[in-house]
Amino acid sequence: MLTIILLILIGGLSAVIGSLVGIGGGIIIVPTIVYLGVDNDLLHGITPQIAIGTSSVILIVTGLSSTLGYLKTKQVDVKNGSIFLFGLLPGSLIGSIISRYLTLESFNLYFGIFLILVAILLMVRNKIKPLKVFAKPQYEKTYVDGHGETYHYHVPPLVAFVATLFIGILTGLFGIGGGALMTPLMLIVFRFPPHVAVGTSMMMIFFSSVVSSAGHIVQGHVAWGYAIILIIASYFGAKLGVKINRSIQSNTVVTLLRAVMLIMGIYLIIKSFL
């Protein structure tokens, strides 16, 4: 019974935070499952690979639920966001295959470093002005949001492919959905408006998670018993996160999230050397 309660809390909370900030929630699910399963034996049969694969499957539901919610409020740029899939999808598959070579020690070290880097990125994302270097007429895209306001931004195909290929590899490797990197990328490099970046990021998370999950399922990296409970909790958590997004500023959540990631990252790095 304790296991079920823990999984419901993990799935629900990660989905609320993930959909609210546009990061998916895998960055919370993976280290938590590893901590509960490997360090405390509260979840049986957990390895880093199984935690990553299970998270990828859950993020399909979180991504889909959040995307459908953001589509209703016209916060998803489907046409221009689809450009990112050309790099993101093959990268996700490559990452899921590479994940088989992770040991517990290497997972703790690399994921710890990754968490700290993402926390730093979340700290500075609002302070870094969008880059104007790619603001060329041939790359210009437009999008009309739910309020009828038209936005102009620029998406160079080659830059989009290279950046999202790298993000896709990390997505499949760590089971994190990629939103933690996609949202800042769209804000800083491609100059998306924040509310459209969050919604479009969740669409990216859905598609990348489908591909990376396929790679993990083939390799037997999914704990289906745990996944079903997490999926149900994540579905409702993601819907709640979308509703909260409409009524509050996400800065408070971002501040809390990056503090937790810094602490968790430092803990994992220290643990990798013990």
Automatic annotation (TrEMBL):
Indicate how the chain sits in the lipid bilayer: Multi-pass membrane protein
Per the annotation, which location comes first and is thus the protein's main one?
membrane
| One GO CC term, this protein | plasma membrane
The organism's place on the tree of life at top rank = Bacteria
Which subcellular locations apply to this protein?
Answer: Cell membrane; Membrane
The alphabetized UniProt keywords are: Cell membrane, Membrane, Transmembrane, Transmembrane helix
Q: Which Pfam families match?
A: TauE (PF01925)
Instruction: List residues traversing the bilayer.
Output: 7-38, 50-71, 83-101, 107-124, 158-180, 192-211, 223-242, 248-270
- Mind telling me which InterPro entries this protein's record contains? TM_pro_TauE-like, TSUP/Inactive_protease-like
PANTHER family for the chain: MEMBRANE TRANSPORTER PROTEIN MJ0441-RELATED, MEMBRANE TRANSPORTER PROTEIN YJNA-RELATED
Family in the record: Belongs to the 4-toluene sulfonate uptake permease (TSUP) (TC 2.A.102) family.
Name of the protein? Probable membrane transporter protein
Organism of origin: Staphylococcus saprophyticus subsp. saprophyticus (strain ATCC 15305 / DSM 20229 / NCIMB 8711 / NCTC 7292 / S-41)
